[in-house]
């Protein structure tokens, strides 16, 4: 269902940010002006890497890469893993909507996943927080024996997918799992299955349907960011 072209259309269709504020360029510090990537204005604290100037305009955590001028991306804090595609930024609310590109790649991979799929939370840099209003989706990568056991549970919340992650793996998905501040999802563990947790937007009814997992992953989830802690670096130096 969700192919690469769907993904592109999706980006083109979800645009709803208001027009960029006049004068945003003057508000930029450190000589970095607001820039556009695709349909999104990138301004303080975010900054677009400038290949030619090769200079830094702020904290690396907020560095944004513009992918073919189609969408801005945030890096993963785990080296070598896929980061996040930004769908939308609200500078007033200090929040942004992103899609975990690692999970998107899994949906698009016809040959099954390549390498590890990571929990979304471990890939987020320090200033970013998963909005507690999100629900969670859990992907299970199971051995064949575990898949038989999982299917036998007749758990309505658990759905088998056509996704694969390795030659003999079968993947299941569970949705509607409430956000847990402590990040403990142990009670959703399935024996013989690796679990990967990713946030998804909660619907207005608070219900999600596991059969919509592709759409749910595509729609992304909300993050908020903390303002830069200005005093922190000085404090750290004093303590050393
Ligand atoms: C958003 O970008 C897409 C292509 O990237 C373009 O077709 C569309 O017109 C843009 N929408 C707005 C409101 O700028
Ligand atoms: C998925 O499960 C299969 C079967 O248990 C295993 O061989 C493979 O390494 C797993 N892949 C990931 C990414 O966990
Ligand atoms: C998958 O496993 C089968 C038999 O276990 C083997 O013949 C086949 O080459 C494997 N395919 C890949 C892509 O590893
Ligand atoms: C992802 O999180 C789940 C639940 O907390 C945990 O069981 C699992 O080991 C984690 N997976 C990875 C790859 O870290
Ligand atoms: C989920 O969606 C499927 C297909 O659209 C439907 O058959 C099923 O009844 C839905 N499940 C729930 C709990 O709403």
UniProtKB/TrEMBL annotation:
Topology relative to the membrane: Single-pass membrane protein
- Please list the GO terms describing molecular function: polysaccharide binding
Keyword Signal present in the record's keywords: the answer is: yes
Where this protein primarily resides, as one coarse class?
Answer: membrane
**An example Gene Ontology CC term for this record:** membrane
Which keywords does this Swiss-Prot/TrEMBL entry list?
A: Signal
Q: Which InterPro entries match?
A: WAK_GUB (IPR025287)
- Ranges for domain Wall-associated receptor kinase galacturonan-binding come to 32-100
Signal peptide location: 1-22
Q: Name one Pfam family in it.
A: GUB_WAK_bind
Q: Where in the cell is it found?
A: Membrane
PANTHER family per record: OS01G0136500 PROTEIN, OS01G0690200 PROTEIN
Q: What is this protein called?
A: Wall-associated receptor kinase galacturonan-binding domain-containing protein
